[in-house]
Amino acid sequence: MSFKSGFVAILGRPNVGKSTFLNHVMGQKIAIMSDKAQTTRNKIMGIYTTPEEQIVFIDTPGIHKPKTALGDFMVDAAYSTLREVDTVLFMVPADEPRGKGDDMIMERLKQAKVPVILVVNKLDKVNPEQLLDQIQDFKDQMDFKEIIPISALQGNNVSHLIDVLSENLEEGVQYFPEDMITDHPERFLVSEMIREKVLHLTREEVPHSIAVVVDSMKRDEETDKIHIQATIMVERSSQKGIVIGKGGAMLKKIGTLARKDIETMLGDKVFLETWVKVKKNWRDKKLDLADFGYNEKEY
Ligand SMILES: Nc1nc2c(ncn2[C@@H]2O[C@H](COP(=O)(O)OP(=O)(O)OP(=O)(O)O)[C@@H](O)[C@H]2O)c(=O)[nH]1
Ligand SMILES: [Mg+2]
Given the CA of residue 151, which atom of ligand 1 is nearest to it? Predict the structure, then answer.
């Protein structure tokens, strides 16, 4: 049998479970997750390889009405995948009614000449009747190639979705080596894991106002640990106070939790040092955005 391959984008509003799905398929955390909207800010590849096939998933930032240059970058990044993939997974939550955001995305999907599979996620949160109503409502809006309900969190029906994608793959080359799981370097994943902890531990505007940059990452021969130095950027000095916390307690908590995740990912002991720095309005400054890793990336 010949080898099959293809690119699949995961698109949808913020918070619907796109990254949770990607991580479930990959069996490890390559995209951070949180209950805050707009968690993912870059396109993130998850490369799923078996002896017969390679499916290259692209997780994308949740599509929303942008209010900053960072928001523009995120939404552009999500839509840019429409030119790069063979299939789109349009993900919607089972437990929230269709909204303007969904309609806006569907308008774009209709114009793109790519087959779209509707993935109704979070099926664990509704009863079968609610699920059927949700499916019917979306079915009335556009033609989907397939409609598949899943729970990305619990894993229900995810393997069925993979089977459907496999059946629709065309013959093709293996684009990436079988041991490669993502396109981003370890430094990116490290910075994201730190950002995830800040998202989990802070509220309101703080999660949206931070960026994390890894300044250095190298093995310390004496302690045999990976020594990582990272800076958490905030937009205002009041936010710096929040991230550092009373007597440094918050920053310590962020560091401890992030270190554990980073150690699991690297399979190595880690010594993590973090600093907090104010960069006024960085989300609207093109140069800062580029410095913090938010610049164009085409596949
Ligand atoms: N109950 C339930 N919760 C889920 C499911 N999938 C995801 N979630 C939760 O939904 C929230 C958002 O998940 P993410 O994977 O970060 O969502 P996302 O679509 O990547 O969000 P953005 O990156 O902001 O666009 C998290 O709190 C997840 O735990 C599911 O199948 N069931
Ligand atoms: Mg995400």
Answer: 31
Q: Which amino acid is at 51?
A: P
Q: How far apart are CA 244 and CA 222, in angstroms?
A: 29
Contact 239, 206 (CB under 8 A): yes
Q: 94 and 122 in contact (C-beta within 8 Å)? A: yes
Q: Which of 94, 155, 162 lies closest to 127 in space, CA to CA?
A: 94
**Ligand that lies nearest to the alpha carbon of residue 11, given by its number in the listed order:** 1
Cα–Cα nearest to 74, from 293, 299, 231: 293
Q: Tell me: the pLDDT tens digits for 217-273?
A: 999 999 999 999 999 999 999 999 999 999 999 999 999 999 999 999 999 999 999
Q: CB-based contacts of 270: which residues, under 8 Å, 6+ apart?
A: 225, 226, 227, 228, 259, 262, 263
Distance 219 CA to ligand 2 centre (A): 30
Q: Whose CA is nearest to atom 11 of ligand 1?
A: 35
The model's pTM: 0.97
d(CA 282, CA 291): 10
Burial class from Cβ neighbours inside 10 Å (0-12, 13-18, 19+) for residue 256 reads exposed
Q: Give dist(CA 258, CA 267) in Å, integer.
A: 14
Residue 216, CA distances (Å) to 74, 144, 293 in order: 26, 46, 15
Atom of ligand 1 nearest to the CA of 156: 31
